[in-house]
Amino acid sequence: MSTEKHHISTYMSHGAVLVILLSLTALSVGMAELHLGAISVAVALLVASVKGTTVLTYFMHLKYESLFTKIMVAAVFLMYALVIIFLFFDYLFR
Amino acid sequence: MSNSETHPQVSYLEYQGKYKGILGWITSTDHKRIALLYLYCIIIFFFVAAFLGLTMSIEKMRPGQDFMNAQTYNGFFTVHGIIMIFMIVIPGLAAVFGNFALPLLIGARDVAFPRLNLFSWYLYVTGAILAVLSQLLKGGAPDTGWTFYVPYSAGSSTNVIWALTAAFVLGFSSILTGLNFIVTIHRMRAPGMTWFKMPLFPWALYATAWIQVLATPIVGITLLMVIAERVLHIGFFDPALGGDPVLFQHLFWIYSHPAVYIMILPAMGVITEIFPTFSQKPVFGYGAIAISSLAIAFVGYFVWGHHMFTSGISYWSKWFFSFLTFIVAVPSAIKVFNWISTMYGGSIQMRPPLLYAISFVFLFMIGGFTGLFLGALATNVQLHDTTFVVAHFHYIIFGGMGFAFFAGLHYWYPKMFGRMYSDRWAYIAWGFTFVGFNLLYFPQFIIGIQGMPRRYFDYLPQFQWGHFLSGIGAFILVTGLILMAWNLIYHKKRGAIAPANPWKGVTLEWQIASPPPVENFDEIPVIKHNPYWFGTEEEIRREKKS
């Protein structure tokens, strides 16, 4: 729509996000080598969530969207979190 | 010009774009044409899968082997399930009626991404071709059932990979359609159409679209994991490789239970459009119906474990999923109450769409109540994997979604094709379909309680009466379906010209010509009332003048 603002991110910010994503990937691999046992999946999911949030915020311009859109995205994250919690609930009490 | 009013625009059926004939159809980005492309594909696949179902019923009318062996039977019920679930009921109402009616109902000229919409149809066709190939190629039809449970699906020598790939591709089509509808509903509603002035079918499609977008990727990845396990021997699910077969069931049902709501929510939306029109009365409890769609979509995400009560999940998980299963019945019951209340005190016209809609409520209620038997932990252990589950499932999916599909088809048929079908033949076809359906599936509740397992090729003699009645019912049902198809196909060209508003509906699609012009509206309407405003003649006249 013509009334909407267009946001052009700088190369610097894109580069910074790229470095963060690569660092987090290295962290994921590193954590897997540590063999953390029961919490290894939780740690991997946490790192993946941070990466996903970073992509959404900067590459997908969520940072510039309305509060309503941000709440909807947060609700999706919450829903996936609940699905994962309920799934692991079974493994925890089996 | 064939549309029912003198109109500056040509109808979408007559429009000549860059290409003519079939090319004009398969390259069209018009949402109405894409809806019909889905409709024709779905009808063809439906009759193929119905034929497989009929054949299975005939085989089981007598115990023992008659004309197909056990392996063929396994292939038949798998193919029947894959076609019916992934190619008919999941895309069914949303892709056909959603595509056709959503832009019309919200006062838009098309969906938000018309090319993506056509691409979704191509993905659907690609997935369908892969599914068909899985049945025909060397190796034999997959024999896992449509649920692809491991460890069997990881080891079966049949064409499981083809079928998994087909389901994966069909899932992509579903995701893109959902995405398109979400954006369309957010961005393309007519001026003045606030969320709570939007008709209830778009509300149902909106709730459905979120499930499509959020749940489908989970099953997509799960199916890829099975392929990876078969091809690369990565141990996701095979205990010998360090995997867990119950994890597959979790991941599969995290999608496939919400998928039941992908099937049934648009059906509920269609029904909600029909009741006010044929009662000539505003829908009762608009807000409750709208919110209950979202509630069903949300709570429906968290009940998947009720498919796994006998799979060895933890006691507390069973308790938790059983509780939530009972909770999800509440918003469905709210809808049923509101549909009945909409008819109460209305000026009811018992035309074919309403007859099918009422049948939907009746059959869906039987399906819903028997679902409570399965949601309760104690009875589930007795009934799990019996024909009781088959009957419950078909009462929800065929009695619910199927009858709603027929209701929607009879409701929007005059708008789609600009012709009227024969009411008389529609009533006759309904009679066969309704009686046949109940005779086919109701006995399966009883023999299921008595202990008849599902997916069994042979059975003990005491279950023969149930299978025999089911076989008779299958013949009657197929007769009804053929009559219905004949009535609709025959009158597509030969029926009486349909007026713009044959049912005296008040939503936007009835305010334009039948069939609709290419661009739907000459001018995008400005919305002032709630969507089910049945004003008096004087009020409507005053409204038009202003």
Describe this structure in words.
The complex is a heterodimer of chains A (94) and B (546). Chain A contains three helices and no strands. Chain A is mainly alpha-helical. Chain A has one domain. The radius of gyration of chain A is 17 Å and the shape is flat. Chain B has 546 residues and is mainly α. Chain B is built from 17 helices and no strands. Chain B has helices at 21-26, 31-59, 70-89, 92-106, 114-136, 152-155, 160-187, 200-232, 245-279, 286-299, 315-343, 352-375, 377-383, 387-417, 423-449, 464-494, 537-545. The longest helix of chain B is centred in the middle third of the chain and has 35 residues, at 245-279. Chain B is globular, with a radius of gyration of 23 Å. Chain A binds chain B through residues 76, 79-80, 82-83, 86-87, 89-94, and chain B through 214, 246, 250, 254, 298, 301-302, 305, 312-317, 320.
Largest interface: A-B, 13 and 15 residues
Estimate what percentage of residues of chain B fall within beta strands: under 5%
CATH level 4 superfamily of chain B: Cytochrome c oxidase-like, subunit I domain
**How many domain units of chain B?**
1
Helix share, percent of chain B? 55-70%
Biggest pleated sheet of chain A: none
**Per CATH, which architecture of chain B?**
Up-down Bundle
Which blocks of ≥5 consecutive residues of chain B have pLDDT under 50?
none
List low-confidence stretches of chain A: none
The total count of strands of chain A amounts to 0
Number of helices, where a helix is a run of at least 4 consecutive DSSP H or I residues of chain A: 3
Distance between the termini of chain B: 30 Å
Overall 3D form of chain A: flat
What would the keywords be for this entry?
heterodimer, A: 94 residues, mainly alpha, 3 helices, 0% strand, B: 546 residues, Cytochrome C Oxidase, Chain A, globular
